[in-house]
């Protein structure tokens, strides 16, 4: 009778780890707990940046989840001196960000500090193993305002146009002027939070997180799904604005701008997740069909 394979990934001795690295842990907490508290009471409490704590939590979970595999893969740690200049850069960004109230600088400092600690403690192989959680954290850093403004307007125009086209085709009394929708007696301004760059980046992050978790072996499936994340994100934005427009049309402006506006945000993420899963299922079917044809074809 075959015996089950033993687990090859060694257990991580967290007590030993904490005893060696508690000064760094205390330093990180002292520096960045005030930062995250400020963000929770400020930027992260707004609709445009509400994805920040979600990105942070998911990234830290990925780091923790991959840690035993990382330790097994790297074997003996080989600390890299490249971590020192990165640590200096992290401290510089933190001082500038904290003193000048630039929260993007503080968040960048947090990411750089984690990278430097990985290099100083375990070396470049550890960083290569944990590259995705580190990269994923970049999605919680707000982009410069002028860049966001320049890229957001075309996106809002496109979302407004598609919303008008779909609802007009469905028979609703809707018209559009720029990013202002007129449906019945109500006017709606398609705001940055509804169809802006930050929303698109949030959905991009959701799609990339899904790809990292499922880790398909088929390269074509991964590439196609990664490319389709952008139109999926746009479609989810359109669904959200349509939902908000219909809520306003049927229940009034107060309902649209009040509690149900937050519900429309849930519609955004739920619809994006459903679209990603649907497209992934379709790709799985196509890849499986292609594999069956390859097996059945004569040599």
UniProtKB/TrEMBL annotation:
One GO BP: proteolysis
Cell membrane recorded as keyword: yes
GO CC annotation terms, alphabetical: plasma membrane
Subcellular location: Cell membrane
Keyword Protease applies: yes
Record membrane topology: Multi-pass membrane protein
A molecular function GO annotation: peptidase activity
Pfam families: Exosortase_EpsH
Transmembrane segments: 20-37, 49-67, 79-97, 104-123, 129-153, 165-183, 189-211, 223-251, 263-283
Alphabetical keyword list: Cell membrane, Hydrolase, Membrane, Protease, Transmembrane, Transmembrane helix
Top-rank taxon, per record: Bacteria
Entry protein name: Exosortase
Organism, scientific name: Pseudoduganella buxea
